Amino acid sequence: MNKLLTPIHCGITGFGSPAAEYRQLPLSLDELLIEHPSATFLGYAAGQSMQGVGIFDGDILIVDRHVTAQNGDIVVAILNGEFICKTIDTDNHALLSNPVEDEPCKIHEFDDFVIEGVVVRSIRYHRPSPLLSN
């Protein structure tokens, strides 16, 4: 188990002391979530096509441009002018949505395709953030 993080038990077992296992963590969220600060950007997911891999509409995506995309990675890319987030299938030159019932999007040699970065983390909001409201 990672000694830097405090385990949080999700089962309901009663009313223990809120301070029983409290301790100050010796790291920041920036250090925990971002490995290459100068090559990382944030975006948010729009749509339902990646729910099968745990990315939901409105989730924050941490995208690292320093990481080289490998088969099966979730990438942010531009395909023919459209900014998208999909799983890359390098073996079949395709982009996959999840649920897997959706048809793969083949990448052809005539397509304008650029990988902008690899999604290395995602953050889900359980309450709306005032910083992200319109």
Automatic annotation (TrEMBL):
Residues 14-120 form the Peptidase S24/S26A/S26B/S26C domain. This is DNA polymerase V. The gene is rulA. It comes from the Bacteria. InterPro entries: LexA-like, LexA/Signal_pep-like_sf, LexA_repressor, Peptidase_S24_S26A/B/C.
